[in-house]
């Protein structure tokens, strides 16, 4: 993963202790060390770039253009009543004010995904959380960009000391606390289609269901 402000650990690499070759019952994404013969910066953007790589693959070469993305962190904030925090804001590429969860770019050098998640929860929802758990990490569009998003479950929520000023699409951001089961229902009904929200809400619902069963509640 590239960073404009300094080195960032590539969390897509195999994790320590992971088996080199998964067995039949254990599937895992497989790293490929394909030689990049040429890499061209096609477009340098304000937030992300577009690159064109010529790659040695198999017995030949392939050329692929993709968005070079810094990555992001996202937060599934669940309160003591089992409600999840959703935010709504305008997204120009899809021409919708879609429902999302708080999220932001990994664009500050030295800031971990968890620190980014904490910052985004404060900036977008004026909240702090005292309980944090990693949920999942996902590639959003592996055929078109290298973005990885790290999702966290945040609980034990309190109002932040400061209220943040918001501009552009965030100026008219809307916050809504929704029962987790209603958010799950909205996903399967096709009313909530944001990918990061979908993964985060379903992962949190499964995590909390498992915790409830293991506690015997």
From TrEMBL:
It is an enzyme of class 3 (hydrolase). This is NUDIX hydrolase. GO terms for molecular function: hydrolase activity. It holds the Pfam family NUDIX. It comes from the Bacteria. Keywords: Hydrolase. InterPro entries: NUDIX_hydrolase-like_dom_sf (IPR015797), NUDIX_hydrolase_dom (IPR000086). PANTHER family: ADP-RIBOSE PYROPHOSPHATASE (PTHR11839:SF31), UDP/ADP-SUGAR PYROPHOSPHATASE (PTHR11839). It comes from Microbacterium psychrotolerans. Residues 1-26 are annotated as: Disordered.
């Amino acid at each position: 993963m590239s960073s404009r402000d300094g080195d960032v650990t590539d969390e897509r690499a195999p994790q320590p202790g992971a088996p080199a070759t998964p067995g039949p019952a254990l599937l895992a994404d497989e790293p490929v060390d394909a030689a990049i013969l040429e890499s061209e910066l096609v477009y340098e953007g304000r937030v992300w770039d577009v690159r064109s790589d010529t790659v040695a693959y198999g017995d030949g070469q392939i050329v692929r253009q993709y968005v070079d993305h810094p990555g992001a962190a996202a937060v599934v904030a669940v309160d003591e009543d089992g409600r999840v925090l959703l935010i709504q804001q305008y997204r120009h590429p899809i021409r919708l004010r879609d429902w999302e969860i708080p999220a932001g770019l990994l664009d500050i050098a030295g800031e971990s995904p968890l620190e980014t998640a904490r910052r985004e929860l404060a900036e977008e929802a004026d909240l702090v959380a005292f309980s944090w758990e990693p949920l999942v990490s996902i590639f959003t569009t592996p055929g078109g960009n290298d973005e990885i998003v790290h999702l966290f479950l945040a609980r034990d929520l309190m109002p932040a000391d400061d209220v943040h000023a918001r501009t552009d699409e965030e100026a008219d951001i809307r916050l809504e606390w929704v029962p987790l089961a209603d958010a799950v229902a909205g996903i399967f009904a096709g009313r909530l289609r944001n990918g990061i929200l979908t993964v985060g809400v379903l992962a949190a619902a499964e995590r909390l269901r498992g915790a409830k069963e293991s506690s015997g509640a």
